[in-house]
């Protein structure tokens, strides 16, 4: 029985993510958990009651700093840190090892311990495994850490090995020094970035009777991949019945990845350190509150947050506080960030317990890392802006630039067609580039998928181009009511012999508020001055007077509705970006589309030309070509089904230079893939596009 009596409650399917609980001298701790850093017995710029309100269960304090100031005598007088800072919950103290080796200043190291110069009074201070434990006993933490020798994770092997072996010997001495203290003690696994040293260290340390195990020496110079690999190697070897703590890590994304690999506890200064720089972690990615885009923005910084900052202050006010360097701005942002971290950990725990971890993990990993792009399309203050109420519906709002309306998703801040005039972009990127009009002369009907109806710019551009082109093609004037099955495969024929369908346009959308909102403002959305959009909203279908064009709405989640839709010839893939519509950009979503397209010659057009989206399309089995640029975008992307690629397509397929660029990229993985599954990599590298070309004879 260890001092913490750790209970493993659940491990998520298909992951090492686990939920557990343990009891310290002060409270029960539910894991996974994050420990706010209180370096000098205070979380920077935070009141302890606010930290308590965030749900923090353990506070981390730094032995090194507290040893120098206020000194252990004061803790002895107060009977420990809990009474000194009036903190009723658990405290974990580090050993001082990390600071000795990471802070500037002279120091020496020997078998006995480390010697360094105090930054307070410049006297020499000795820290040995025994004196570190003695200091932590005075501080009275619930969980103490052994003294370790921390080296940069990138040092040469001999140095890493020597530091690891010294850490192992010090671990034994620390255990002996702890004696019968009721305080828990964690061992620390070292070994820099060498997998075999990490594995050896994990075995040696976990053979000792510690109450928990930490992974030290990461987040000190290595890349994210290396860190995650080392973490996975170590967690695999650590006993399941004691908590695991990844020291000093990291961003919200780092925490998610480490939980996925079996880590239970974290600490990091980032929530308060980045708050000082004006950066907030939010449910829609990072936000930089110093950006002028936020100057006038009303509403909370994070619409999905229940912290007191988000409940009480607008983003414009927080921007202003940053602007004038008002200390309370730092405090308010830090409060939110700590709250966000704690809430994220609770959500992780809930999903592990409910065994819905995998979906949660996939939905969060890119979102958490998303960088701030709010305000790329600045809006002008117009008379119309006073009609604020009319400009919002559900999660959308209208923004107007140069007299043309666009739809913004208020949760992510993203604007549809933000860089070009929407109808212009729809014509160039989708209608013209797909040669829609030309194709209407081919076998009928031409089936076009419009993924992401939005304000119907692409659909109306297609209809405007198709109507005059097909008016002479259809045999009569019988207005058919459309087929009974919603464009279901093989059910697309019209009702009468006279009304041959030339174009079947299928629009996919799960939230019609964007179209409803745009229809309220015909002055800004001129393309909607047509009978079709209102009829589509009312009946789910519109058929042109000639009967040649049918437009259908498939409402719901695209990944479900596409299964019942008529297979396409063309796909206009124009949803919001992955930050807003993450599920549509995943490898799984592209694979489903490719399956639907496998037996047909299909071309897909999308505005994205990100390396990772292109890699996902390749991994899913599409051939990928460069599309034309639009506005400031140098390129867009065209994906071809294998049958389309086998024909005379005239597209400019990406060559091997793309592979080289992709391999240099730090965003190689398609969105939403399991990091344990690397099959996509082989699918990209081995893609026929890069191996069968140029073989004309
Ligand atoms: Zn908040």
The unreliable regions are 376-382, 474-498
Q: Which hetero compounds are present in the coordinates?
A: zinc ion
Major β-sheet strand ordering: 22-23-21-20-24-25-27-26-28
Q: Taking all residues together, what is the mean pLDDT?
A: 88
Structural class: alpha/beta
Distance from first to last alpha carbon: 74 Å
Q: Determine the number of helices (DSSP H or I, runs of at least 4 residues).
A: 26
Radius of gyration: 30 Å
Determine the strand fraction and express it as a percent band. 15-25%
Instruction: Tell me, briefly, the overall form.
Output: elongated
The number of strands is 28
Sheet with the most strands? Answer: 9 strands, mixed
Helix content: 25-40%
Write a concise keyword list for the protein shown above.
single chain; 697 residues; alpha/beta; nine-stranded mixed sheet; eight-stranded parallel sheet; elongated; binds zinc ion
What does this structure look like?
36% of the residues lie in helices and 18% in strands. The protein is α/β, with parallel strands linked by helices. The strands form six sheets. The chain has a nine-stranded mixed sheet. α7 (157-178) packs parallel to α8, α10 (252-260) runs antiparallel to α15 (357-369) and α11 (270-276) runs antiparallel to α14 (327-353). The termini are far apart. Mean pLDDT is 88; it is low at 376-382 and 474-498. The protein binds zinc ion (ZN). Zinc ion is lined by residues 302, 305, 307, 309-310, 336, 339.
């Amino acid at each position: 029985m260890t001092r913490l009596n750790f209970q493993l409650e659940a491990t998520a399917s298909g992951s090492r993510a686990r939920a557990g609980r343990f009891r310290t001298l002060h409270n029960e701790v539910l894991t996974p958990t994050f420990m706010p850093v209180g370096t000098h017995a205070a979380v920077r710029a935070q009141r302890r009651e606010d930290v308590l309100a965030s749900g923090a269960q353990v506070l981390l304090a730094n032995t090194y700093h507290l040893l120098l100031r206020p000194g252990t005598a004061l803790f002895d007088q107060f009977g420990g840190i809990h009474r000194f800072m009036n903190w009723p919950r658990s405290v974990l103290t580090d050993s001082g090892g990390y600071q000795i080796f990471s802070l500037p200043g002279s120091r020496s190291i020997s078998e006995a311990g480390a010697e360094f110069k105090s930054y307070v009074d410049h006297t020499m201070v000795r820290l040995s495994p025994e004196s570190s434990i003695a200091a932590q006993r005075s501080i009275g933490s619930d969980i103490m850490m052994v003294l370790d020798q921390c080296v940069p994770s990138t040092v040469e092997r001999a140095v890493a090995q020597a530091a690891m072996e010294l850490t192992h010997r010090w671990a034994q001495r620390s255990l002996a020094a702890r004696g019968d203290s009721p305080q828990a003690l964690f061992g620390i696994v070292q070994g820099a970035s060498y997998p075999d040293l990490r594995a050896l260290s994990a075995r040696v340390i976990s053979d000792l009777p510690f109450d928990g195990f930490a992974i030290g020496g990461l987040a000190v110079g290595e890349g994210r991949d290396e860190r995650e690999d080392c973490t996975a190697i170590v967690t695999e070897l650590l006993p399941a019945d004691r908590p695991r703590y990844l020291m000093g890590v990291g961003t919200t994304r780092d925490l998610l990845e480490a939980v996925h690999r079996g880590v239970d506890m974290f600490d990091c200064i980032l929530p308060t350190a980045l708050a000082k720089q004006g950066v907030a972690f939010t449910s829609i990615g990072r936000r930089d509150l110093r950006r002028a885009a936020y100057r006038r923005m009303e509403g909370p910084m994070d619409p999905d947050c229940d912290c007191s900052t988000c409940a009480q202050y607008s983003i414009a006010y927080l921007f202003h506080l940053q602007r004038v360097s008002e200390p309370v701005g730092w405090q308010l942002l830090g409060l939110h960030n700590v709250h966000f971290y704690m809430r994220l950990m609770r959500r992780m725990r809930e999903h592990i317990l409910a065994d819905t971890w995998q979906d949660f993990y996939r939905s969060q990993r890119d979102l958490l890392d998303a960088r701030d792009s709010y305000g790329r399309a600045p809006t002008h203050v117009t008379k119309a802006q006073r009609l604020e109420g009319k400009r919002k519906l559900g999660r959308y709002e209208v923004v107007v630039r140069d007299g043309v309306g666009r739809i913004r998703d208020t949760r992510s801040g993203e604007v549809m067609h933000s860089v070009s005039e929407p109808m212009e972009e729809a014509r160039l990127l989708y209608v013209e580039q797909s040669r829609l009009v030309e194709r209407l002369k081919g076998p009928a009907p031409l089936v076009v998928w419009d993924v992401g109806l939005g304000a119907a710019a692409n659909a109306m551009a297609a209809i405007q181009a198709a109507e005059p082109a097909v008016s002479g093609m259809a045999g009569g004037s019988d207005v058919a009511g459309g087929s009974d099955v919603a464009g279901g495969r093989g059910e697309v024929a019209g009702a009468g012999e006279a009304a041959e369908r030339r174009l079947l346009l299928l629009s996919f959308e799960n939230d019609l508020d964007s179209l409803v909102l745009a229809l309220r403002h015909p002055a800004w959305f001129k393309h909607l001055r047509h009978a079709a959009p209102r009829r589509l909203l009312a009946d789910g279908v519109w058929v042109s007077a000639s009967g040649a064009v049918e437009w259908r709405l498939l409402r719901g989640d695209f990944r479900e509705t596409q299964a019942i839709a008529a297979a396409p010839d063309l796909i206009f893939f124009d949803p919001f970006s992955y930050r807003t519509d993450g599920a549509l950009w995943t490898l799984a979503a592209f694979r489903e589309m490719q399956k639907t397209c496998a037996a047909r010659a299909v071309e897909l057009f999308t505005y994205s030309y990100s390396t990772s989206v292109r890699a996902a399309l390749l991994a899913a089995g599409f051939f990928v070509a460069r599309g034309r640029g639009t506005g400031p975008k140098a390129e867009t992307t065209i994906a071809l089904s294998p049958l389309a690629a086998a024909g005379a397509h005239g597209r400019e397929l990406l060559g091997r230079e793309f592979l080289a660029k992709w391999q240099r990229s730090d965003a190689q993985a398609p969105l939403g893939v399991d990091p344990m599954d690397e099959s996509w990599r082989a699918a990209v590298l081995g893609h026929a596009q890069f191996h069968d070309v140029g073989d004309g004879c």
